[in-house]
Design brief:
- It is a single chain.
- This protein is an alpha+beta fold.
- The chain is built from 21 helices and 22 strands.
- It has a five-stranded antiparallel β-sheet, sandwiched between helices. Strands 7-6-10-9-8 form a five-stranded antiparallel β-sheet, with helices on both faces. The protein has a five-stranded antiparallel β-sheet with strand order 12-11-15-14-13, with helices on both faces.
- Helix 19 (669-683) packs across helix 20.
- The longest helix is centred in the C-terminal third of the chain and has 63 residues, at 559-621.
């Protein structure tokens, strides 16, 4: 290798090239300057080719430029060697450099020959310019289409956000695409909470029944049917009714692609129409694609065109959705130019006027025959909107085929991109029902005022601090103050000091929410300083948020009643004194009656026992000597004495019933009745009597006396069913007309004629002979006295041979 370098750089044996030029200065420097300039040019060209390739790496076949640069650098180097060999004869080095240049030149020529056919197929600059011009025109056209679609989108938003009613867009499966702001604000949610979710999702915070109605309606509408229904919603003011509908939107093939839900409040058919005034929620999906800068690469241009086509399709679909929405809303939507001519009217105008929408296009209201007064009103409001750009609302009456109607129109200015107003959008709604409601409210207010001012009691509204805020004439009459004087005072100022603390305590409890109303008797100090007794009923009025607004006071003058109460109190005291005196007299009479009862029991029983005993002795001892008539007389004597004994016992029992002290406890009447029936069955085991006793019948009273009632009634039922082959007795409880519990004993025995019912409960009163049914006639009288002592009453219902039912209350 060192030998090669020494040979390459050796100059011995050679003469410099300048000798060939005989060292003539002009000739030498001619060659030097020429070769130097050529070398400089070659190096500059190579540098610029490399720089071009570096900056334009996207140029096809850029390697050929680098190969040309290498070839040109080699050529420039050979010219430098020409200058060098003028003085230094290193011809071996110059020769190798030329050999390298030849190799690079030959390779370049070979590769260039292969490249030429490929380069010839590249588009010429003119062709590229034509293609670029066509692409620019197409992009410009797309931009114009996008601008038109954006304008359509703005109009859609203006209408969607200004409509009065709840409205949205759904997929056929019920998934929410769009919901306007009116609906969202009504239930207090955001669009992000519901968009993309089923329309009946519980995020609405609405009743399940109402959401199920929507779910069923969506299913039916997805089958291509228009659905309309009414639902109701609870609100703090009461039930709100909603008129809801679902309209399917179909494509060219008849397939349902969208559902348009609409709803409007129709509470009492009128009040809901004030809710749908807000704008529709801005549609979520908006085309935000931006046109990319045109590049020299066709692929990127084609991709941009494809994106714009997709955007155009989406905007076209939105325009179709907007058109379907506008054409199906019940509100009249119209657009007016600066000459107040109709440029657009939706189909709702035909429902209102009977005139097709196309008749309105290009015409003013005056040309359409509207009254001059109404035209002047419209023109004035329209001019204001065009001049100020501010939204305006106008109400007017308009004759329709269905009669004179009230309409409310919202007029909204539509701006161009440079901020100029080019048209006004009008949204008109039939508010005839709302006007009727307002008229009804005015009439109601008038009636309330008349009632308030003419009421027979004092009525007032009171502030939280006690200040009178509204009083009627009756309250002024009660207090002696004029209305103006009362309104300058508080209720504390005219309340008697002895009653003020109790009154303030009740007010404090109402303020704390413990009570909502209270009533008390108190005294006011009249203007003339005299006290007046009143009955005050106070209540609180709160707003929807539960905050206190004011108090309602109902004041009744009870001075006369208080005076009567004092008189009654005095009368009661006199009556109490007289009762005490009468009680003492009755106690003395009872003591005498008790002594008489003892005398009757003792003095009458002894002779009766003697008569009965001797009669029995005669029958036993002289039976053989007495004939049948004598025996019959003796039996009659014995029966009479025994019956007299029973009468004495019953009279004593009746006397004790009215005189004994009552001990009130809870008494199990069912258990007592069961015990009495057991005794009756034991006394006559041969009788097949069916007895039904209702379980668990209890009452408050004296147990001993209540047992006497049941013994008498059940013994009578047992006795008066003795002639029945199938006897039935029932004890139970029922509710009578006054809702008071009544106990009863029912049987299917002989019964009685109700014409004699007034004799049933008198002492010794009988409706059957002794031969039919024995007895003394004292039992029912005893029952009545016991029932009366318990504060109740006793009665019977019966028919001859159809049984009887005895009722008693306690």
């Amino acid at each position: 290798m060192p030998d090669f370098l020494r040979t390459l750089l050796a100059s011995a044996g050679f003469i410099p090239h300048g000798h060939c030029y005989l060292w003539k200065p002009d000739l030498v420097w001619l060659h030097v300057s020429s070769d130097a300039l050529i070398a400089l040019a070659y190096y500059s060209i190579s540098f610029m080719l490399v720089y071009f390739v570096y900056k334009r790496r996207d140029v096809p076949f850029n390697w050929i430029f680098l190969l040309f640069g290498s070839f040109i650098i080699a050529c420039g180097t050979t010219h430098l060697m020409e200058i060098w060999t003028l003085w230094h004869p290193t011809y071996w080095l110059a020769g190798w450099i030329k050999a390298f240049t030849a190799i690079v030149s030959l390779g370049t020529a070979v590769l260039l020959s292969e490249l030429i056919p490929k380069a010839l197929v590249l588009p010429s600059p003119a062709e590229l310019e034509a293609v670029n011009l066509a692409l620019r025109n197409e992009i410009l056209e797309r931009q114009q289409v996008e601008e038109a679609l954006r304008e359509s989108e703005r109009r859609f938003r203006a209408i969607f956000n200004q409509t009065f009613q709840f409205i949205g867009l759904l997929k056929p499966d019920g998934t929410v695409l769009e919901i306007n702001q009116t609906a969202l604000e009504f239930v207090g949610i955001k669009a992000a909470d519901i968009v993309g979710r089923p329309f009946w999702d519980e995020v609405w915070n609405l009743p399940t029944e109402f959401l199920n109605q929507w779910k069923a309606a969506i299913t039916e509408a997805a089958n291509g049917n228009f659905v309309r229904f009414e639902g109701n919603l609870p609100t703090p003011q009461g039930t709100m009714f909603v008129d809801a509908s679902l309209k399917p939107v179909k494509d060219e093939t008849g397939q349902v692609v969208l559902l348009i839900p609409e709803g409007r409040e129709i509470t009492e058919r009128k009040r809901a129409e004030e809710a749908l005034q807000r704008a529709y929620e801005q549609l979520e999906i908006r085309v935000r694609e931006r046109t990319a800068e045109l590049t020299t690469i066709n692929a990127s241009l084609e991709a941009e065109i494809a994106e714009r086509k997709q955007a155009q399709a989406a905007l076209h679909q939105r325009e179709q959705e907007l058109k379907a929405l506008i054409e199906n809303t019940p509100d009249i939507i119209s657009r007016f130019d600066r000459d107040l001519r109709h440029t657009y009217v939706n189909s709702a105008i035909e429902l209102a006027t009977g005139v097709p929408p196309e008749v309105f296009i290009g015409k003013t209201n005056r040309e359409l025959g509207m009254s001059e007064d109404l035209v002047s009103q419209w023109e004035r409001v329209f001019r204001q909107v065009f001049e100020t750009g501010q939204e305006n609302v106008v109400e007017f009456q308009f004759p329709t085929p269905n009669g004179l109607k009230y309409y409310q129109s919202r007029l909204v200015a539509e701006f161009t991109e440079d901020g100029l107003i080019n048209s006004v959008l009008g949204i008109s709604r039939d508010i005839t029902g709302l006007k009727q409601v307002e008229e009804a409210l005015r009439n109601s207010e008038q009636r309330f005022r008349a009632t308030f001012n003419q009421a027979a009691v004092g009525i007032a509204e009171v502030e939280r601090n006690g200040q009178w805020r509204l009083v009627n004439q009756k309250l002024c009459d009660i207090t002696g103050y004029t209305r103006e004087e009362l309104l300058e005072r508080t209720f504390q100022d005219i309340t008697h000091p002895d009653d003020l603390n109790t009154d303030l305590e009740n007010v404090g409890r109402m303020l704390a929410g413990e009570i909502s109303t209270y009533s008390m008797e108190k005294r006011y100090i009249r203007k003339d300083t005299s006290p007046v007794w009143i009955n005050l009923t106070g209540s609180v009025v709160r707003n929807c948020a539960g905050e206190l607004r004011y108090f309602i006071a109902i004041v009744e003058d009870i001075s006369d009643r208080k005076r009567f109460q004092q008189e009654i109190t005095q009368l009661n005291q006199d009556l109490e004194r007289r009762v005490v005196e009468r009680t003492a007299q009755l106690e003395a009479a009872n003591r005498e009656l008790e002594a008489f009862s003892y005398s009757v029991s003792h003095d009458l029983r002894a002779p009766l026992r003697s008569v009965d005993g001797f009669s029995q002795a005669l029958l036993e001892r002289y039976a053989d000597t007495l004939d049948e008539k004598g025996k019959h007389y003796l039996h009659r004597i014995r029966a009479g004495s025994q019956r007299m004994g029973e009468l004495i016992d019953d009279l004593l029992e009746l006397s004790r019933v009215t005189r004994t002290e009552m001990r009130t406890t809870e008494v199990d009447l069912s258990a007592i009745a069961s015990e009495i029936v057991i005794e009756l069955r034991q006394s006559q085991p041969e009788r097949p009597v069916e007895v039904a006793i209702a379980p668990g019948i209890v009452a408050q009273g004296d147990a001993r006396l209540l047992r006497i009632i049941l013994e008498n009634l059940l013994h009578n039922a047992w006795k008066f069913t003795s002639n029945r082959s199938y006897a039935c007795i029932e004890f139970g409880i029922t509710l009578k007309i006054d809702s008071q519990p009544a106990y009863f004993v029912r049987d299917n025995g002989a019964g009685f004629d109700m014409a004699y019912a007034n004799k049933l409960f008198g002492a010794f009163q009988r409706l059957h002979s002794m031969t039919e049914f024995p007895g003394t006639g004292i039992g029912l009288a005893t029952v009545q006295r016991i029932v009366h002592r318990h504060g109740g009453r006793v009665w019977a219902e019966s028919a001859v041979e159809q049984g009887a039912t005895f009722y008693f209350t306690l």
